[in-house]
Amino acid sequence: MTSLNIFIILGAYITYSTCVLATPVETQSSEENFETCRQKIYVHLDAAQSCISNLFSPEEMNETRRIHVGTKCPECHLFLRKENDIVDCIKDAADHLKIFSNKSREMVPFIAQFAEEALSAYSENENELMTVFGDMDNRECYRSGRVACRSHLEFLDHLDRTVMCESLHSGNDTLNQKTFCQHFDDFLGCADKGSTTCSVDIRNHSSNLISKLRNSKSCSKYYQ
Questions:
Q1: Predicted local confidence at residue 22, as pLDDT
Q2: Taking the domains of the chain in order of start, what are their residue ranges?
Q3: Residue 217 has what DSSP assignment?
């Protein structure tokens, strides 16, 4: 599957949460320039998807299980092992995608930085990561809460029109760095409210993510 959401890898979503990899939006438009642009960007997005998928291959998972015998969350350990490689995949894609429009020159490096910070937010506390995702009840409660809040991230499905390529349908779009941060703040706030029936560990994790977002290099200036 192909997705613009690959740029917004929220840490553990890659392997064990609710990362929805949307297929390209079907269009009936005759915007030939836009369609040509979109075809080009999906070449790079497909390459980035393959780059990351290869990091989580069955062979890599088996190697992780060999290293961490008996672990309840081999995906967590693999994610931690491959974090820098994931960042490299994202940066490589960003280098190609930032050239397609004036807005992409502004937004693509910002989104890549945001993704890197999101990965770091998940990985910086290994014990918390293992507690949240190493327990099946915790994992399912965490996943369910975020699936219910997915509507706050629907804007990601249209980054081809609103960021990468010029489109007749993107003229009234209000997406910028501030609204990008706000969309994720709304998503995390929704997920936090949905975690009230989950364990204390999940509730604390949800609250921590909101704090990390609001204090991140990418978004902190919008919460001062």
A1: 34
A2: 4-222
A3: T
